[in-house]
Design brief:
- With 124 residues, the chain is mainly β.
- The protein is 0% helix and 49% strand.
- The mean pLDDT is 96.
Length: 124
Amino acid sequence: QVQLVESGGGLVQTGGSLRLSCAASGRTVSAYNMGWFRQGPGLEREFVAGLSRSGSTYYDDSVNGRFTISRDNAKNTVYLQMNSLKPEDTAVYHCAADRRMGVPGSRPNYYADWGQGTQVTVSS
C-alpha cells in the first residue's frame, strides 16, 4: 500500500497556472501506474491524466495540451502542471495509484490508493 498526499491547489485566475504535487510514502511511485482525477461540485470523479510505470503519459481530451503529468523518482512525487486554466477546471484534484499491469486506467475503480485531494478554483 502507498500513502499519497496532494498539495499545491489554490485560487487562480483564468489563464493562470498551478502545479500540483502528490507525495508518496510506503512504496515508490515508480512501482505503480499513477493517475490524477478531479471531482467538481455535484459531478462524478473524472480522469485527468495518467503516467505509466515506463513513463508514458495519457490525458483526457479536455486537458490535453494544457496539463502535464510527471514524476520525480528521487522525491517519490508525482506532479500535475496545469497551464491555461479555465473556470471549468475548478474541482478537487486527487492523485491515485493503479496497481494493475498495463496502461493506467481511466476509471476510478481501477485505482486502489488515493490521496485526500487538493482544491483548485479558477476564477473568471
